[in-house]
Write a structure and sequence with these properties.
It is a single chain. Helices cover 66% and strands 0% of the residues. The chain is built from six helices and no strands. It has two domains: 71 residues; 32 residues. The longest helix is centred in the C-terminal third of the chain and has 30 residues. The model has no long low-confidence stretch (mean pLDDT 80). By secondary structure, it is mostly helical.
Length: 146
């Protein structure tokens, strides 16, 4: 394994460019693990690399040209904009949807009402009286003891 810092800096650079081989990546990982100072060097190069990449992306965008392109596309679209399938409304599906909603509301109201009525309604009190022809007859089970 080589101990030259310039070698590892070149290795880090080739790693960020995506040109490092699997052996070189393993060697770089081992170098980072051997010393915390090496890990610090790698993280500093990584931060610098990310900053440079972000600056390169931002500088490559011509905002005025992109704005003009957007305005021209809005004024003269190249293709017809079609609605998504979910945005296309079908009258039959809307009617079925309405019917199912009404049925669901009816069920949600009817079922609890039925059970409440069954459990909490009290039957009307009835007075039991014998028919008039039985009123004048003596009760067969009662014996007079006179």
């Amino acid at each position: 394994m080589k101990t030259n810092n310039a070698y590892y800096i070149d290795l880090i650079t080739s790693y960020f460019y995506g040109e490092a081989t699997s052996d070189e990546i393993r060697e770089l990982e081992n170098w980072i693990k051997t010393n915390p100072a090496n890990a610090t060097v790698f993280s500093e190069y990584q931060k610098t690399w990310k900053t440079v990449e972000n600056a390169r992306i931002e500088s490559s965008i011509d905002i005025d040209r992109e704005w003009d392109y957007l305005k021209s596309e809005i004024r003269n679209p190249k293709s017809e904009i079609r609605p998504l399938k979910s945005e296309i409304r079908n009258p039959k599906s809307e009617i079925f949807s309405l019917v199912f909603r009404v049925a669901a509301i009816f069920i949600l109201l009817a079922v609890p009402t039925f059970f409440l009525y069954q459990n909490f309604s009290r039957p009307a009190e009835k007075q039991l009286t014998p028919p008039p022809k039985w009123l004048n007859k003596p009760c067969p089970t009662v014996r007079s003891s006179l």
